[in-house]
């Protein structure tokens, strides 16, 4: 009665299956194998087209006019053919319903960027933003796990597939144009030039760093180090923030560019106090968000946005501030318009 062709389409016996109206083809217009990455609206359109092709082709002309080579074969009785067609459509509907149910949960991706998101020594994702994600999951009664991937890979997945939430990410005009949706902000990153505690270095602009011939350590390939290099500042590129912190504390460089939140996490891992360094100039403040991929069902986006807003009516953010202030050894704060951020330390020489 049927077989699967090399092109992946289900082919039926030409004598038992009517032609599609307006064509000479005996091939179903869509394979039963379904691409669940397609949007909800695309799936509905395909289902309608499939149904029309199946039942629209079921006409007396299609039933009575068969190819010459089929004349020697008995036709399938109309009642049996109707039953077969109905059964095929029911199978399709069952698969569609199953796929739509699975699509109701976003795939949750993050990349290591402590203390917002990172992997604990026991392999469990953790961090300030991870706590926000888990709180929203509880409100929505979801059990989707958080996957930790390198940023470049996670960003590629979010660009390619619907129903993906990547956190945290900056809201840029380019990403808005690409169709991403943003929930938050969740964390405000205060990127600053850090000096050793007690340092007499004073700068009020990046140009002052260059004019004083100061050397700054920063992560290789980061926008932070590129910004300094474009301004003509002497830099030392490091593999990670830990190396930059060590170089600053060992007086091998004059300054270290990082965020205040990240500095607190790095210094804790190095066994140093958070006040071992001081922020002397804020380079940029960048809010970051929960970023949801394009073509995601608007109802799903609305539920996540509503759940995040609902959290603001609880004591969740206050408890999270207290938890991470204790763990990081610095005072945090939460402002709805900015998200979580580090309070300016008394010894900092910047107003951030």
From TrEMBL:
Q: Which Gene3D superfamilies match?
A: Periplasmic binding protein-like II
Q: What is this protein called?
A: Ectoine/hydroxyectoine ABC transporter solute-binding protein EhuB
Pfam families attached here?
SBP_bac_3
- What positions does the domain Solute-binding protein family 3/N-terminal occupy? 105-328
**Which InterPro entries does its entry note?**
Solute-binding_3/MltF_N
Q: Which organism encodes this protein? A: Roseibium album
């Amino acid at each position: 009665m049927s077989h699967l062709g090399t092109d992946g389409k289900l082919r039926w016996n030409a004598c038992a299956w009517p032609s599609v109206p307006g064509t000479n083809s005996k091939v179903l217009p869509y394979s039963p194998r379904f691409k669940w990455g397609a949007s909800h609206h695309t799936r509905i359109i395909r289902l309608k087209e499939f149904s029309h092709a199946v039942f629209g082709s079921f006409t007396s002309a299609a039933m009575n006019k068969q190819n010459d080579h089929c004349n020697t074969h008995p036709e399938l009785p109309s009642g049996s053919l109707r039953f077969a067609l109905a059964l095929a459509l029911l199978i399709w509907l069952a698969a569609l319903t199953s796929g739509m149910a699975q699509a109701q949960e976003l795939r949750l991706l993050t990349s290591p960027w402590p203390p917002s998101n990172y992997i604990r020594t026991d392999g469990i994702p953790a961090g300030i933003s991870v706590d926000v994600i888990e709180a929203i999951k509880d409100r929505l009664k979801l059990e989707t796990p958080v996957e930790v991937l390198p940023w470049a890979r996670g960003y590629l997945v979010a660009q390619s597939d619907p129903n993906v939430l990547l956190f945290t990410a900056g809201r840029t005009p380019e990403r808005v144009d690409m169709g991403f949706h943003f929930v938050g902000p969740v964390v405000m990153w205060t990127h600053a030039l850090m000096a050793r505690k007690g340092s007499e270095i004073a700068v009020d602009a990046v140009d002052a760093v260059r004019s004083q011939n100061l050397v700054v350590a920063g992560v290789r390939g980061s926008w932070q180090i590129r910004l300094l290099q474009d301004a003509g500042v002497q830099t030392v590129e490091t593999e990670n923030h830990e190396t930059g912190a060590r170089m600053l504390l060992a007086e091998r460089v004059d300054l270290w560019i990082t965020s205040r939140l990240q500095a607190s996490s790095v210094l804790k891992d190095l066994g140093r106090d958070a006040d071992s360094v001081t922020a002397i100039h804020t380079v940029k403040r960048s809010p970051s968000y929960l970023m949801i991929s394009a073509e995601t069902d608007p109802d799903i986006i609305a539920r996540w946005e509503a759940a995040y807003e609902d959290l603001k009516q609880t004591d969740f953010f206050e408890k999270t501030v207290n938890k991470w202030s204790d763990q990081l050894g610095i005072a945090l704060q939460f402002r709805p318009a900015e998200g979580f951020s580090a309070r300016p330390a008394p010894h900092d020489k910047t107003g951030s």
